[in-house]
Amino acid sequence: MVKFLHCADLHLDSPFASKRYLNPTILKDVENSAYESFKNIIDLALREEVDFVIISGDLFDQHNRTLKAEVFLKSQFERLQKEQIFVYIVHGNHDPLSDEIKTKWPENVTVFSNQVETYQAITKTGETVHLHGFSYEKRESYENKIDAYPTNENRNVVHIGVLHGTYSKSEASDRYTEFRLEDLNAKLYHYWALGHIHLRQQLSDLPEIHYPGNIQGRHFKEQGEKGCLIVEGDHVALKTRFVPTQFIRFESATLETEDISQQALFELIQDFKARVRHQGRAFYRLQLNIRGDEMISPQVLEQLKVLSTEYEENERHFVLIDEWDIRYIDIRQKSIIQEFPAELLEQDDVYERAVKDLYMNPKASKYLESYQQHDRKALVARAEAIIEAELKGGN
């Protein structure tokens, strides 16, 4: 019997440049969110008394590898060491191996080199488990090393493949170490512990092939619960279960109203926050559907945004409306978006030209997250709503 924890894509010290406007107390929570989530993961590993923990790449976030992150990880690994729980790590495209980095981890930690290696783990019940994997040597790793993974010749012993890479049928833009399911199946392993794709997904149940997703959402493209997988079983069958560990969630919600008075709108938002607060700290992208012919004035909307954030720093679980999408669903007028060909709004170069000047500005760019992280459709919808409001005000 083997029991282990599988996580990936910690991205410690990932920058939250677009959140600098937040209250300092809440901003601190945001900046520490990945740390808190990983601490929850270690707490879980200890409670579950797992045999080992697998981290499938991207512990750090590119150039933001700080001493704080290394000291934190070392302290968490030492907690596991006291209970004789081992850690197996592969480095990914955001934290490749480097001769300049000489981190000394506790003795219970094994880091795979830039070549495919095999390690043996002994479970608490005395069974042997084989783990196979490799770490990225550089950020842009397009080399396919799947062929170097040894084929399992003993189906009575659990074999686990650890891989930071891109499933061939995924929509990921950074297609590092791309693989096909046939490639993994051919190795006859019992479990593939994947990393790199931040959306939790199961690619196969025989064998078990899983992306656990990243451990903490960072924007609205990474919505919902985040955490890790607990895997338990033997060479005959393995069972997995997801355990959420996120410190903060990114979510979307929709509200409807006919009353657009400032007081009514404020109460609508407050009631919504009261309903969801028990679910934990969260940022929301709110779609507000307005029924009727009247439109919210820009002044009222701005006051509503300010009022909705007041006193949230005093709450144990803050709930912030971070993005607003105002829609007038009964207004009988042609959508501004319909004036443009659909394919025009999908063209990358049109979008890139629109944001180029802003991102090329050295004073502004340092506060911006990568434009690739933005939801393009949401941006277009928000722009349409702003234009409609301005046109209405001009009448």
TrEMBL record:
The keyword Transferase does not apply. Pfam families: Metallophos (PF00149). It comes from the Bacteria. Keywords: Exonuclease, Hydrolase, Nuclease. The keyword Zinc does not apply. Residues 3-198 form the Calcineurin-like phosphoesterase domain. SUPFAM superfamilies: Metallo-dependent phosphatases. Signal peptide: none annotated. Transmembrane segments: none annotated. GO terms for molecular function: exonuclease activity. This is DNA repair exonuclease. It comes from Staphylococcus delphini. The lineage of its organism: Bacteria, Bacillati, Bacillota, Bacilli, Bacillales.
